[in-house]
Structures are given as C-alpha cells and as structure tokens.
Give the backbone structure.
Amino acid sequence: MMEAFATRYCDCNAAVFQSPDTCYILSFAIIMLNTSLHNPNVKDKTPLERFYSMNRGINNGEDLPPELLAKLYESIRNEPFKIPEDDGNDLTHTFFNPDREGWLLKLGGRVKTWKRRWFILTDNCLYYFEFTTDKEPRGIIPLENLCVREVPYPRKPFCLELYNPNSRGQKIKACKTETDGRVVEGKHQSYAICAGGAEERDSWIEAIRASITKDPFYDLVSVRKKKVIKQAPQD
C-alpha cells in the first residue's frame, strides 16, 4: 500500500521528488514522527533538527528542501493524523495495542550477524526496536504481499523467514533507521528472524500470517514484469 501510494503521488506530483523511493522513505519518517510527537509515553520528543537528520540524502542522495520538512513537521506537531476506519483512534496508540510483541533475533542484511531486537506486530507491519524504551523503531517491514515460513539456520533451529514469493532476488520494500538517525530503505531480499523455541516461533508465524494482506493487482504486475524480463534481448 505504501509503495502504491508513493508511486501514485509521484505520478500526480512529478516535480516534488526525484523518485517514488523518496516519497516512500519520507512517508515512514512521517509515521515515526507522528508517533514520537503524540505518543504520551514518549518523553523525549523528536525536535525539528532530528527530523532533518532522519531525512538527510533521501532524495537520490540529495536533501529535501528544509522548508518542506519544516512545514511537514509543524503540520504533524499541530495536529496528529488519524485513520478514519479506526473510529477516531489515532496512530499514537499503534504500539500499545499490538497483535504480538516480544524479543527475537534478527539476521542483518549486509553484515550477517544476529542481533536481539524487540518486535511489535501491528497494523499489517512488523516493527523492530533496539530497546523496549526506544521512541522510534529501528525498522519497519510492511507485510503486504509477503509470505512467512519456517526456516532452520545453522545453530538457530527456531527461525522463520519473511520473503516475497513473486520477486525473488529483489529487495523487500522496507525502511530502517541508521545509527546517525537517517531513514533509509532496507537491504533485505528476505528477513530471517529467530525465536527462543518452537512454540514461540510457531506463534509468531501464525500471527504474521493473520496480519499479511494481499493486493489483488500485485500478482498481475509481477507477472507482467517477469514477461518483460523474459522478452528482453540478451547480451
């Protein structure tokens, strides 16, 4: 859904961003800002300067105009956005009514090391934090069109994997926060996550499967892409 929104926005507003990826990353940064500013349990509110840093270089390596980011910041600070379907319950409660939460191990995308992360499953997304007290997630994985399965790893027998069954070899559309605060696209083609036991792993798989949504047009686009690639002339 977020990817479709970013693409559609750029189609209708071609002069705003250099690519849909910029809009995609900025959208997640805005969600994180909204939660930080309006969640009553977050004491250290994100200042404007940190919002600038979060979005540094996301426009194909260039910075977005500071006046645009300042306007977005002031708009969110003055009035949190809400989801109409939730009958008035805004996103400040996102992390406090999760479908499931708990400590898991996550395998890095570029550096293949296991790191302990606090995971929260809610609103068809999987969020992960470095600590339970963090005000912003280290990463957000939209579950739309993904699949989950049991996959054992060496010395890690209780693992599950998030993957895209129709786009093997392509990165999953997700976002993460770098150590310097910048929001960037994730680098994973799949996500390997390890639980503490078989029962815990199976419970997470069941919960994730229940949260996964499917875009009926996604498969049509995927098939079209494969056809174009197959018909492309080979060197």
Observations:
- Residues 112 and 229 are 30 Å apart (CA to CA).
